Amino acid sequence: MTLAAASHGFLTPSGVEIAFLLVGLVTLGAAVVTVTTKQLVHAALWLVVALGGIAVEYLLLTAEFIAWVQVLIYVGSVVVLLLFGLMLTKAPIGRSPDADSGNRWAALLVAVASAAVLVWVVVDAFRASWIDLDGAVQGSTEVSGRSLFQHWVLPFEALSVLLLAALVGAIVLSRKTGEGSQETGRAAAPVRREGQR
Amino acid sequence: MHLAYPAVLAVLLFCVGLYGVLARRNAILVLMSVELMLNAVNLNLVAFDVWLRDALHAGQALTLFTIAVAAAEIGIGLAIVLLVYRNRGSSDVDKLTDLAERPTEDEQAQPQSQQQAEAAA
Amino acid sequence: MTTTTTAVLVPLLPFLGAAFGLLLGRRAPGFVRPLAVLPTLAAAVLAVVVAARQGGGAAVDAATQLAPTGSVPIELALHIDGFAALVAVLVGVVATCVQLYSTGYLRDDPRYSSYAALVSLFTSAMLLVVYSGDLMVLLVGWEIMGICSYFLVGHYWETEAARSASLKAFLVTKLGDVPFLFGLFALAADAGTFRITGVLNAVTSGDLHHPTLIALLLLAGVAGKSAQFPLHTWLPDAMAGPTPVSALIHAATMVAAGVYFIARLLPVFAASAAALVVLAVMAAVTMVGSALAALAQDDIKRVLAYSTVGQLGYMTGALAVGDRGAAVFHLLSHGAFKALLFLGAGVIIHAAGTNSLAAMSRMRGLSKRIPDAFWTVTVALLALAAIPPFAGFFSKEAVLGAAEHAAVGEAHLALGGAHGDLGSVPTAAGWTVLIAGLLTALLTAAYATRLWLLAFFGRGPQEAPDHGKQPFAMNAVLWVLFIPTAAFGIAAPVLPDWFDGNALTPTLVTSVLGTGLALAGALIMYGAWRHTTAAAARRPIGAVAVDPDAAPAVSEEEAIATHAAAYGDNAGAPDPADPGRLLLGPLHAPATCGFHLDAAYTALFVRPVRAAARIVRFLDREVVDTYVHGAGTGARWLGSAVRRAQTGNVQTYLGALLAGSLVLAVAAVLVATGTGA
């Protein structure tokens, strides 16, 4: 928004912009494949590509610490978790024709409509806004660490408690219950369904 | 860099994730789509943080928190999916319709009894 | 105690008696009889005290306002003049007699406690009406009397006749009470007050702007309450109630309330010549018609009921010619002898085991079984037929004398000193009342003779059944009431001091005419009876279906319940030996059923109302219910349609949610950007 920024234009893209655009296209394509592919494991792998692309975008936006965290947590652990989940639920390897549910077209309609509205609004709102990527680095580890442990230390600690609770909760949920109660649980389930019909 | 690039990319990613959430049948694929949506939001946060040059870097801090919460969410979510799979033998979202209201027998009998009451009156 | 305090106690004591009677009736049966008799007796004594203190002098007025009631104030007011004092004495005495009589008459009745309490409440209401100086307070008593009458007529509610009679009495009197209420409002709107004194002052000063309208509206209520044509039809049917109730409510007091009300407000009525003429015509039709109907009735109490209607016609006739002294004089003497007649009829019904005159006329020796009732009823019938020297003669001659004055144009409305001369009475009203009164005197004597002969001089194969000795209380009361019946006439020279000052002593012309006609009527009836009585012995009719040990009330209830079954009708009996049938000729059949007035009402009111009700029912069932059912069915269809959306599929829900929020977001953006461009 400075005078220098005002001289920019769509017709004279800078190198960063071109790189951002290309990586963005790759990311978007990977995301689309993730939500449309019939092969479940492939979806997880394409998700890796999409998340990695987003990490590159973070780098291009000079937020390098976020980018590495993204790579570590998402690409490193979340996708692994998802793959484990797929395996534990005995997801079929190869093409499964019923990967999409019946209301696919309604979902497509809603998604396209929201995309149109949001793109219209966002472009309309920020058509004259420019990010000044020159100058001091915004997201180096040092800068992020400083802000995190100076200003955000209390939420940070609270978040650790949340993580602990999630950990405990996940363990409790996924733990196999005792033999006796499991039997009653299995016996009770069909009865319950009978009662509801 | 023009702000519209990351913003539009975030919007499109979000909507792709939205489509996945609505259209996918397998619960784990739905969770993947949720991750896409979360990442779209994260991208927005980072982009606006950089654009505004926030002294506190609230956007980036919040992105970190979101990533942590997303990790927790995926842990719990997968645990729930596993539980469902163990109980139902399937992790398809559109088969979990126990909360749907089905026409029961007394509702089918109700119009008949009402007609009888009218005839008696 | 001041006179005011005493006067307040008079209505209050029976009210308290009624309240305690209702409260204690079930828990302490021993208190019921004292609670019924003693407060009424005390009220009667206090009423006598009030009358003695008031002494026919200036009216006692007292008022207190409980709460402000808007533009026209309503006050608890007393207005005790000579009329109020004497009528209160009558009410107290008759009520005490009736309560005493009831202790014997309903001795085994399981509902005696509530019965006695209602009679006490009724007495209290009547005394309130008599003493009240405020028209709204009067209306309260008026309506309480109506509801008590409803309950008491329906005392034998096991019988169909009593149920329908109580409902009919209530509805018909209410039919009159509605215009009555409007009349009171109109009167208060013109006079600016509900106080009787204020209203009378307004009449004197000419502030009453719509006297004819007000008088006619009030007249409707009076006709309903006092059983005047055309609203009299409830009274004969009300005889389905117990005999003491008939004596108290439907002979001596409540039906007299209408007459008393006009007497109190006579200046209002006198302000409109049209109202007086209407009143006279109403009285004349009532008198003659009811006397004819009385000739044809078979039920002894229905004879007396039609007789009551006729005598009330005499009173309204006296009012129509502007002599309220004569009206209230007749009210007092009629109250005494008609109460006696009813109570005697109760004894007769018990002794004979039937209420049918046809059945009685085939019983030998009924008069010897009940000598007390025989002698007292004989004298009361003489009084009713206006044979000198009994009470009825004097009061009826006072009425006829007043009518004669009016007919020759001598009557002036001298209503006490304060109100002055209000002008003359229309001579047409005078002639109407005089002629109708003389004709009715003939008929009255005829039906009184018929009742006497048929009831006491039956000739037939069977003896009257032996029901044992009548209860002492019942016989004693008959003799108590015998005293005023026989001797009230000597009060005629004194009474004008209590009333407006018009002379009430008999005049020669009307005395000779009236007595002569009465004697003629009695002789004609006697001749007819001699002619038919031989046939009576040959044609057995009627059924006596009562066991001898039952209480009188039980006998009466069974008699009422079996009358229609035995004769096919509540009113008449197919008895060829009836002298009334011989005399009336072709008129007999219509007279039996009250000249088809009930049928006319059926055609005029009941059928249209029923038809309207059918239409309403049709509209309700077919039209309104269709909408209701349509609303229900529509909601159900809508519900099942909506339920289809309730698939249980979370993704569908989420999709719908997002689509909705998308629409909202677009709308919000369009609004935020202004024109939507």
Please describe what this structure looks like.
The complex is a heterotrimer of chains A (197), B (121) and C (677). Chain A is mainly α. Helix content of chain A is 74%, strand content 0%. The N terminus and C terminus of chain A are likely disordered. Chain B has a single domain, classed as Helix Hairpins, CATH 1.10.287.3510. Chain B contains four helices and no strands. The longest helix of chain B is centred in the middle third of the chain and has 31 residues. Chain C has 677 residues and is mainly α. Among the domains of chain C are: 324 residues, no CATH class; 28 residues. Chain C contains 29 helices and six strands. In chain C, strands 1-2 form a two-stranded antiparallel ribbon. A two-stranded parallel ribbon of chain C has the order 3-6. Chain C has a two-stranded antiparallel sheet with strand order 4-5. In chain C, α3 runs antiparallel to α22, α6 runs antiparallel to α8 and α21 runs parallel beside α24. About 1% of the residues of chain C have low confidence. Chains in contact: A-B, A-C, B-C. At the A-B interface, α2, α3, α4, α5 and α6 of A face α1, α2 and α3 of B.
Write the layout of secondary structure elements.
The complex is a heterotrimer of chains A (197), B (121) and C (677).
Chain A: H1 3-6, H2 15-36, H3 40-60, H4 64-88, H5 104-126, H6 141-150, H7 153-174, H8 179-196
Chain B: H1 4-23, H2 27-52, H3 58-88, H4 105-120
Helix pairs in contact in B: 1-2, 2-3
Chain C: H1 3-24, H2 32-54, E1 60-64, E2 76-80, H3 82-105, H4 112-131, H5 135-153, H6 160-191, H7 196-204, H8 211-225, H9 234-237, H10 243-252, H11 254-264, H12 266-270, H13 273-296, H14 300-320, H15 324-352, H16 357-360, E3 363-364, H17 366-369, H18 371-384, H19 391-407, E4 412-414, H20 416-419, E5 421-424, H21 427-456, E6 462-463, H22 472-487, H23 495-498, H24 508-538, H25 552-567, H26 579-584, H27 588-592, H28 597-645, H29 650-672
Parallel strand pairs in C: 3-6
Antiparallel strand pairs in C: 1-2, 4-5
